[in-house]
Amino acid sequence: MAAVAAGGLVGKGRDISLAALQRHDPYINRIVDVASQVALYTFGHRANEWEKTDVEGTLFVYTRSASPKHGFTIMNRLSMENRTEPITKDLDFQLQDPFLLYRNARYEETETPVTRQTV
């Protein structure tokens, strides 16, 4: 397990994580921040409630050398399908500690409880 500090991963853990992210997106050039454990929920308008998805794992916020210049990925521990979102003007964020709510351009409202682990 990689060490996590307030600024994110340190040392070899950061290098390994960056290499793993770059396999999915070669334009990622720097990890900005990390949350060690998150779970993704979507808002079900019919049921009018939050529904847990099958996306759970480590959240990486990063910069890219191509447009869009920033993004985030949840490296999913439950399946091979990661969740990646470009950070653009069409992405709305709202922090309701300990939750990070966002709505993307597809108007998909999601809630991500963020747990940060400091070692």
TrEMBL record:
UniProt cross-references to Gene3D superfamilies, sorted A to Z: Pleckstrin-homology domain (PH domain)/Phosphotyrosine-binding domain (PTB) (2.30.29.30)
Alphabetical list of SUPFAM superfamilies matching this protein: PH domain-like (SSF50729)
GO cellular component, as recorded: cytoplasm; nucleus
Keyword Nucleus: yes
A molecular-function term among this protein's GO annotations: enzyme activator activity
Name of a matching Pfam family: DCP1
InterPro entries listed in its UniProt record: Dcp1, PH-like_dom_sf
Keywords from the UniProt entry: Cytoplasm, Hydrolase, Nonsense-mediated mRNA decay, Nucleus, Phosphoprotein
Location relative to the cell: Cytoplasm; Nucleus
Enzyme Commission (EC) number: 3.6.1.62
Catalysis: reaction(s): a 5'-end (N(7)-methyl 5'-triphosphoguanosine)-ribonucleoside in mRNA + H2O = N(7)-methyl-GDP + a 5'-end phospho-ribonucleoside in mRNA + 2 H(+)
UniProt record, GO biological process: deadenylation-dependent decapping of nuclear-transcribed mRNA; nuclear-transcribed mRNA catabolic process, nonsense-mediated decay
Similarity comment: Belongs to the DCP1 family.
Protein name: 5'-(N(7)-methylguanosine 5'-triphospho)-[mRNA] hydrolase
UniProt organism field: Gorilla gorilla gorilla (Western lowland gorilla)
